[in-house]
Amino acid sequence: xxxxxxxxxxxxxxxxxxxxxxxxxxxxxxxxxxxxxxxxxxxxxxxxxxxxxxxxxxxxxxxxxxxxxxxxxxxxxxxxxxxxxxxxxxxxxxxxxxxxxxxxxxxxxxxxxxxxxxxxxxxxxxxxxxxxxxxxxxxxxxxxxxxxxxxxxxxxxxxxxxxxxxxxxxxxxxxxxxxxxxxxxxxxxxxxxxxxxxxxxxxxxxxxxxxxxxxxxxxxxxxxxxxxxxxxxxxxxxxxxxxxxxxxxxxxxxxxxxxxxxxxxxxxxxxxxxxxxxxxxxxxxxxxxxxxxxxxxxxxxxxxxxxxxxxxxxxxxxxxxxxxxxxxxxxxxxxxxxxxxxxxxxxx
Length: 348
Hints:
This protein has 18 helices and no strands. The chain is an all-alpha fold. The radius of gyration is 20 Å and the shape is globular.
């Protein structure tokens, strides 16, 4: 590990935030709400996952090449959990990615070029944190490689896809915030809830981007060519999305009290997701919430975290006029999570 750090320039904290602003949307708005330590770690993890997502999204790279790159990355990230010396293999893999993947966002291409510098910063964190980042990326790589060659035809497929791209991120966040938590019962609850939390945010994005994705023949919900059936499908997934967001509020309620901004980071993201679903439901010609709404939700999120009564009122406000189905977060976790297999494998 030390040899790699000596040989490689480290991406600075300021450079991480610069890239975050250039390649992210909502997370560039919410990650700065955290304390400095968590901003550093979560921004770093996000940029790793952004590179993975850039490979999966690239329209010029053929599917088999993308699958091969993602599978190689999955293997590298997984092995790094126990042997950081193999990071020397990154140079060759980075060269393959730069040759095969050319994003329309020039900053994503620049981020890939700085992949080794990003890793060098990751190596500076506590080993437990480094392992969390690597395992999260490994699961995402494996999930995205699978999704590239398998169509989504059932609700179970949707759950599996959402886990690979967002539920595992929820698990990463929960495991990160629980590193020093002594209450094992609470830790287990938070980790299981985090998968539903992640799926709620991902379903929000899928519903918001559905029309745009349809134009490029990308389908992340079971596809229906019949307009009537499709409207029913969207309504069904809106209700399911709200159920996941309800679980996200429960996750936030159970978070240990601290001043690191993590609860605000989570609540603000969830509040914007609820507002987005309302916009999609009642203003069909609009797909984004307004800047004014964002500012109001930010202030209300701060107030909601001051007192339990305020949190309850804010929750009712967010859920108002929306219908939720029911999601058993424990069953979902047991069915889709790959994290527990990792725990046994790496004994963490």
